[in-house]
Amino acid sequence: MRILLIKMSSMGDIFHTFPALSDLQTQLPNAEIDWVVEDAFSGIAAWHPAVRKVIPIALRKWRKAGWRTLFTQVRQWRESIQESDYDLVIDAQGLLKSSLIARVAGAKKLHGYDNRSAREPIATKLYHQTHYVSTEQHAVERTRQLFAAALGYSLDDMPLTFGIRAHFAHIAKAERKLVLIVGTSWSTKLWASEHWKTLTANALQQGYAVEVIWGSPEEKALADEIIQACPQATCASERLSIQAAAEKLVEASAVVGLDTGFAHLAGALESRTVALYGATSPTKVGLIGAHTDNLSLTPALDCMPCHKRSCAKLPVGSQDTPPCMQGLMPEHVVDMLQV
Fold it and tell me: What would the pLDDT profile of 76-95 be if each residue is shown by its tens digit?
């Protein structure tokens, strides 16, 4: 059976899809799986052993192209994807754009979420067969259940396995190495620099080697600030590639991060990981697995989770840490690392 998977972004969503691929590989070991994914994440998708071929798509670049260039690029991409004769297409994203891409493949059977389950119910109009999957579950479980429904197998007694650790089998685990992921895309998800410094100092006192991972100039400035306060800590002088960052996360004996793709990657790589949550909720998109913990303020503030990029409890334009994150103390994180 030849299967085409549509799940184009984001980085965290890519990681959330891996357990469903592991299920499929176990149930249908002879299936050939191709995966359509945004070109920026094509290398990540190839990490899973169930994937035969990754098919990059450049939607973000297409949006910026002129109409003539856009038409040419879409036509060329359509011709390339239709070279394969797929038995089944699964749209695991549930958006109008992903359902349109799925139809381009020309398969006789196109499966997706039904109108109670899809993020954009209009997408269901383009599917040949739809499946109800409760939206009250974690994103990982939703994708696993969609795959099981589309391919007719049961998830009973099926362990949750991300399946990508073997790709990094050449990386040895370091003893007492702590990696900190200090950045994220929303300011409301950020942790106070003083908390990072305190956590680093405590970890160093407990015998950890501490390394800070950064991905933007602002994050590099924070990493430098942490290292200035705790000179034994380290960070790379240049921004790491996703592959290089993954190798750091595999090597780590423990990871602390925020609600960001690299924290999800650490969890998918089966490293001991603690993720800090405030404005967003870990219930549906938090880290998952026995080796992970999601830490949020307890008791929760009445505004949590707000899912907002700006904090209503702070003045407009304020760079202060939101109360929901300020209340997460470094001591709590250290305690969780000992579990």
Answer: 888 888 888 899 999 999 99
Whole-prediction pTM: 0.91
Question: Minimal CA–CA distance to 255: which of 139, 169, 333, 172?
Answer: 333
Cβ(39)–Cβ(73) below 8 Å:
no
Q: How far is CA 204 from CA 168, 198, 220, in A?
A: 27, 10, 20
The pLDDT of 315-324, averaged and rounded, is: 90
- pLDDT tens digits, one per residue of 41-70: 999 999 999 999 999 998 777 766 666 666
Between CA 192 and CA 197 the distance in angstroms is 9
Q: List, in order of start, the domains of the chain with CATH numbers.
A: 2-163 (3.40.50.2000), 166-337 (3.40.50.2000)
Tokens encoding 181: 């992921």
Question: DSSP per residue over 192-255, as a string?
Answer: PHHHHHHHHHHHHHTT-EEEEE--SHHHHHHHHHHHHHSTT-EE-SSPPPHHHHHHHHHH-SEE
Q: Residue 111 forms beta bridges with which residues?
A: 90, 129
Which DSSP helix (H) or strand (E) runs through 2? strand 2-6
Q: What is the CA radius of gyration of the chain?
A: 21
* Res 316: pLDDT: 86
To the nearest 10°, report the CA torsion of 19, 22, 28, 32: 100
